[in-house]
Amino acid sequence: MSPVRKPALRGRRLFVALWRLVRVYWTSPDAKWGALLLAGAVALEIGAVQAVVFVSDAQRRSVEALEHRDAGAFAHMVALFLGLSLLSVLVSAGRVYARQLLEVRWRRGLTGHYLGRWIGGQAYGQAQLHGGEIDNPDQRIAEDVRDFVASALGLSLSLLAAVATLVSFGGLLWRLSSGWVVPLGGVERQVPGLLLWVAIGFALVSMWLTHLVGRRLVPINYDRFRFEADFRYGLVRFRDHVEQVALGGGEAVERLGAVERFRHVVDVVLQLVRAEFELGIVTASLGRLSSLVPLLVAAPSYFAGLVTLGLIVQTRIAYDQVSGSLSWFVNAYREIARWRANVERLSAFADVMDETGRDLARSGIRIAAAPQASIRLVDVRLEVPGGRAILEGANASVGAGDRVALLGAPGRGKTILFRALAGVWPFGSGRIERPGRERMLFLPQRPYLPIGTLRAVVSYPAAEGSLDDARIGEALALVGLEHLAPRLGATEPWEQQLAAHEQQLLAIARALLQQPEWLLLDEATSGLDEETERRVTELLLARLPRAGVLAAGLRPGALALLPRRWTLAERDGRGILQAA
Questions:
Q1: Which of 84, 528, 567, 580 could bond 533 through an S-S bridge, CB–CB 3.0 to 4.6 Å?
Q2: pTM above 0.85?
Q3: Can you tell me the distance from the alpha carbon of 395 to that of 56, in angstroms, rounded to the nearest whole number?
Q4: CATH no. for 13-120+130-361
Q5: Domain locations in the chain?
Q6: Quick check: 98 and 43 in contact, CB under 8 A?
Q7: 281, 209 contact by CB (below 8 A)
Q8: Alpha helices in 406-548 (DSSP H)
Q9: pLDDT at 221 > cutoff 60
Q10: CATH second-level architecture of 365-579?
Q11: How far apart are CA 577 and CA 569, in angstroms?
């Protein structure tokens, strides 16, 4: 289950969170192009409103021509109406095009920002420190960013159009309805701008009722996003581990887990359906009533002969436009609710990444540049997240060309020490001096195989195409994977296609290709038989003669090739490192 959501953002906190999201793109170098597109979209939005004003006037004139049986004037006004309608269509299409271009650029900038922060050196630390506080970062980057940008532009431009419509048609509605009469206390009275005041009052009541009924949509949408993502992630995880599940006979458990996650989806969607049903009844009722209001108000003046039928037609168009602009909040409420949920999810994600950055910056283990070609531990203390020490007072060094075996019973902290050397384990104290991360290569027990061609998989972490195919083929042949060389251009789910020992051999081939100055192997050959392990270890040492090597989990045959030892042991209840 995902964690319970934090309290909703309101007031100043919502404004701060929104500004933090908006400024990412609008303070970037691409913002100048975004500003041009935004200016074009704004101009076209206002132009679209003005086009509707002209079309409404043409409609009034054509109805009046019919009323006066003036065929020539009617034909002229129909031609004008068609021309103005065509112009309105072109302007409307242009504003949609400009908005979509801006949406793509804004999404590209915001997505790049989140990708840069998430897929970085602090990702592992975030998972360790705050993994339970955030759900589905993949969905937040892929979908919440997309929906936030689309809704931000859609809502802001539609609000601008509503304001422009109110300004354009509000004055017209005031003028058209100023001479109308309304029966008050048995006496017919004239109220300046009668329909404008009616539209304003009706809109205020509509907004209050809409918010009263629809305010539950924000938390429901927030939960819907995370439950949908949990369900999808569970299916993806099963797909990626289908072999392990099948071998373990765990299909029934996986199926029950998927059904349970989907039950949460169904529950929250039913809540959303009920909430939107209630809101739909309110908004539909208000919409139907709103269309009747101008006719009811105009009827006394029409029957009194104060206004023409054509004037009523134009007045109704103006009222509909003013009422629609004043009802922007009512009509956009569902979109606002989804957008608020996007803002809260992205803001919470950014908060966790900020907190992780501060935690790592305060980390007791300090990573420093090595003054010479070496890796040094200086009074290093390693802790598990709860604060229990597993290693204290460690002092040791590995020089260029040294071959060191890391020994110790299971649970002594060998893997954690490797993580600390990589700079991703923040718990503890002391100092680790080491060369730049780009000069080091870590090979874990289970290597990571990225999505892509086999060429990209073998080249990782170098970019695909940066290594010659002949070199890749040679490296594969050296480790016994020559049968894979013809498939370098193939894209397959390689994590499922390759056996565990083939994946480890592929990682060894990576080391041969990358030629690192420092090679750290954490049980990187555990899936190989002892003879193959010794052979590939000899291969690495021969091909990387000047590299410093630190390896854990070797069996006797390969262990004999490494003359030095670091041993993780226990003395007086304390974890210590013995270097020889």
A1: 528
A2: no
A3: 84
A4: 1.20.1560.10
A5: 13-120+130-361, 365-579
A6: no
A7: no
A8: 414-422, 454-459, 469-478, 494-497, 500-514, 530-543
A9: yes
A10: 3-Layer(aba) Sandwich (3.40)
A11: 6
